[in-house]
Structures are given as C-alpha cells and as structure tokens.
Design a protein that fits this description.
Blueprint (H helix, E strand, L loop, with lengths): L7 E4 L3 H12 L4 E4 L23 E4 L5 H11 L3 H8 L1 E2 L4 E4 L1 H14 L3 E4 L12 E3 L7 H11 L4 E7 L2 E3 L9 E2 L10 E6 L1 H13 L5 H5 L9 H6 L26 E7 L6 E4 L8 H8 L10 E3 L2 E7 L2 H4 L12 E3 L9 H14 L1
Parallel strand pairs: 1-2, 1-7, 2-6, 7-16
Antiparallel strand pairs: 3-5, 4-5, 8-15, 9-13, 9-14, 10-11, 11-12, 12-13
Helix pairs in contact: 1-11
C-alpha cells in the first residue's frame, strides 16, 4: 500500500494509538496507522482488533467527583471517540464504566477502517521513521525490535514493572443458589455477582492460595505492585489483607442472611450477553492448574470453567521527565511523540487521554 505523502505515522492501535489516529483524522489530517497484530501476536492479546482491552473490562469510576470520572467527563467534552464508544457499549458495573470488551474493540476497529483519512498497515515497525511526524503508541508490550530502536533514539534504557490479568469464568457453571447479585451500597444497580465466604471458608481459601505454586514467584516478589498487586502477594502480607482488599464485604449485604458476609469474591459481567464473568481483583501469577484448584474453593465456583486464566505481563515505559516535552514530544526529536503506557501513564482512560493530546499536538 502506497503511503500518504503528508500523513502522520501512528505506531500501535491500542487505546492511545486509536484515539490519536481518530483525533488527527477528525482535524483533517491523514494517518498511516501501523499495527503488527495479528501477524505478530503478543503474549496476552487474543485478537487483531484495535483497542483490545486486555486486563479488565472496567474503565473505573464513572462518578464525576472522582478523578477517573472527572477525566471521562472532560474527554466527553473534548469529543473523545473511544469514550463515546465505551458509553455506547456499557454494561452493568455498579458506579464504574464497564464495557463489553468485544463490542468495544470491534466498534473502534470499524471506525478506524471506515475513515477515509486513515490507512491501516498490518505490519511490524522495527525502526522509527526519521523524516516524518510520528506518534509511538505501541503499548507496554512493544516488540523487541521497536523497543531497541526507541532506546537508540532516546539514549536510555526502558523502565518496567509487571502487571497482571484476572481470570474469566463461564457464566453457565456459576451456582446461582450460592451467590447474590448486588453492587456496593446498592449503587448503580445489581451489577455484580457476589460469592460470600464464611470465616472458615475465607481462612481455607487464603491457606490454599499461600500454598499454591506460582510462575517465577521469587522474581515477581522483588518487584513492587502498587495499583494492581497479584492476589498471592496480598495474601502473604497478612491474614486480613484480602478482606480489606479485593475480598472486602463492605457495602454488600447478603439478602439471605440480612448482614455482611465475612468476605466476598465479586464477579463482574464481561459482555452484553452475560455469558462470562471477570473475577474482580483476582489478577495473579499462579500456574493454570493451581488457579483452577484454588479458585474452585470459592462458594459458587466449585465447578468453574475458566475461559481465561490470570497471567502476568511486563509493562515497559520510558523516563518521561527526562525525555518528553509537555506536549508529549521527545525533547531531542520533537517530531516524535509518545502516548499511552509507553509514555508513562497507567490506565485505560489515561491512555485515551494521552492519545487525544498527542494527536492534537502532532
């Protein structure tokens, strides 16, 4: 496919890259959008669609008094395409903006493919073009060849941390006699299925989790997990840590007993069909057979069929304060912009926001 002579190059069709491309196109510019998937697939992506949500289908709080909710409202005012699509494919999720992840990525893909100002190139970029305006939004799972070229251009090695993905279970095998539908404090409707645990069930579950075999357990234990700690790490930090973390029962009164359970495992709806549920906060580094064994101890999931197991992946980013201008361009190469996770932000909405900003500035 012949390139557009005056087009801006966008590398990566994740949340940041997709929003950057659509922003440029809406302003009348032309875009060459490069995406290596599905020809070169990553360790955690499943499709070749743009804006595939890997870790979760929740975009966090939708309440305007929260930081995440305020940012969403600002993006709506700025006519952010991806936020608009997220609103259109929203599913019950309490006070959070939760989306059908398949419908979301499909709609973003169709919008990109149908825009006359955007050319999609399904090929890997191994070197940053030196004579054109370029936005690098290759996500945390940047290919090794491109990562090496970014290091060459910036003169600095990347920083990194490890992130985790939560398991997804088949809705058909959830024992509805043992779970109850509710959102915390009854806000946002009954957006979750809740698996209540007694004190004994909680203690047994935590003990099984402590004894479960992990993948590269000792290596991961040396690395900090602040925003998204793996379940096993939380369990090892104290007897009550899980009860004050992902298994906290606060705001979830079990209607069958008329009070809060000792602990609760929440299941969040994955799509509009309600045929699968995400285990909220259950990101982990356990081997797959161990996840199956331990998580089937949760009441209601005794016969669980896992559509996806939890897993770990490496997130790469650059030294933003040393390398970037305030408009997200490289100080030494102002024609090159960074957006999304690679540019030092964490979160779906933040990736969209930096994509929009980089698109405007490019």
């Amino acid at each position: 496919m012949a390139k557009l002579r005056s087009s801006i190059v966008v590398i990566g069709s994740g949340l940041a890259g997709s929003e950057a491309a659509l922003t440029i196109a809406a302003l009348g510019g032309f875009v060459e959008l490069f995406e290596m998937r599905p020809t070169n697939q990553t360790a955690v992506h499943r499709t070749g669609n743009a804006a595939e949500l890997v870790c979760s289908n929740s975009l966090r709080s939708n309440q305007k008094h929260s930081a995440a909710g305020l940012m969403k409202q600002e993006l709506r005012l700025l006519e952010c395409d991806l936020i608009q699509i997220a609103d259109e494919v929203a599913i019950p999720g309490g006070t959070s903006l939760t989306v059908d992840r398949e419908a979301f990525s499909s709609r973003v893909t169709n919008l990109l493919q149908g825009h006359p100002n955007i050319r999609i190139r399904q090929e890997e970029v191994v070197a940053i073009p030196g004579n054109r305006i370029c936005i690098i939004a290759s996500r945390p799972l940047t290919s090794s060849a491109l990562a090496a070229d970014i290091e060459r251009l910036t003169g600095q090695e990347h920083l990194s941390f490890y992130d985790a993905i939560a398991p997804v279970v088949d809705a058909e095998i959830i024992d509805r006699e043992k779970v109850f539908a509710a959102s915390r404090y009854d806000k946002g409707g009954a957006g979750f299925l809740n698996c209540p645990l007694t004190c004994q069930e909680y203690t047994s579950f935590r003990q099984a989790l402590l004894q479960a075999e992990g993948i590269f357990q000792h290596e991961f234990d040396k690395l900090p997990f602040f925003g998204c700690p793996p379940l096993g790490k939380l369990a090892r930090s104290g007897l009550e840590t899980l009860r004050y973390g992902p298994l906290r029962p606060v705001g979830l009164r079990d209607p069958r007993i008329g009070r809060l359970p000792h602990a609760v495992v929440q299941l969040r709806q994955e799509n509009l069909r309600s045929d699968s549920y995400n285990m909220v906060g259950f990101q982990n580094q356990l081997k797959f057979p161990e996840q199956e064994r331990v998580f089937r101890l949760v009441p209601g999931l005794e016969s669980a069929e896992f559509l996806r197991f939890g897993q770990m992946h490496r997130n790469t980013f650059v030294r933003v304060p040393a390398l970037l201008n305030s408009n997200l361009s490289l100080r030494k190469h102002p024609q090159v912009f960074l957006a999304g996770q690679l540019g030092g932000v964490e979160g779906y909405v933040e990736a969209m926001a930096t994509g929009l900003i980089a698109g405007h500035n490019a």
